[in-house]
Amino acid sequence: MRPKVLVTREVFQETLDYLARFFEVESNQSDVPLTPAQLAERLADKDGALTVLTDRVDAPLLAQCPKLKAACNIAVGFNNFDLKACTERGVMATNTPGVLDASTADFTWALILATARRVTESEAWLRAGQWSGWRLKQFLGADVHHATLGILGMGRIGQAVARRARGFDMTVLYHNTRRLSAEVEKSCHAAYVGMDELLARSDILTLHVPYSPATHHVIGAKELTRMKPGAILINAARGGVVDDAALIEALKRGTLAAAGLDVFENEPRLNPEFLQLKNVVLTPHIASSTEVTRRKMAMTAAENLVAALTTGKPPNLLNPPA
Ligand code: GLV
Question: pTM score, two decimals?
Fold first, then answer.
């Protein structure tokens, strides 16, 4: 009998066709998110799952899925997985590192430029029929070129963002749990600084840390008050890394000039106060969403699932002890 797998949300046809070569595939192509109870019910007899970042794979779920051997996330982030619980249950967990770095870095730049140059705010104003003519002081923004870019979290995506800053003649500072080698720092034209210095000197601070208890509200009220007055904050990493309520206060007070946000606490029910603010650019968690990259992410996850259930050695295994 062929192993049984569940694809929890809509994917591309090629992903389904590939999985069907190895498995009996059940899939949720109607794309209505499964509740935890529905997920448990549909995974009860499955050997593997292709999951997305809104599926919680934790101890209560795993207790109801005795046959499950692999959960393969279509995302680089894996904070929807309780890795300890997966390991305890012998469930291999995987993610999709690498394939989305460049697209996510590009999108970070879209947020940086849109936020600093007030692209969405001025477009909304124009669409609302409010443009009566050119004015010298219309929508004055902040220069990106020659500004200081701060990067918190200098993994693959942070580094790709740094490399793109060269074209804007920026000074690039970064902070990371460990300092990068001199060679990588040179290739990124980035200087390592402590957290306080990063906050104090960055005109634009962009976040590229994974979400975990250690990074929960890593940018909170205290950090926001330490940021350079008039700075811009960009978050295309994960909701929860920023304390959204504290950010809203800082934006209202004007201590921060603006924020560009692709991720939020409690997605998709973001804090409604964001919608009242003009100095924010808000996008619905789409930083990796290009046609090519999302296809690569789905296929990478599928390849992990095939390897997990056929060889026990998926390329992007997150919990080797499992
Ligand atoms: C998207 O947010 C991802 O983690 O891949």
Answer: 0.97
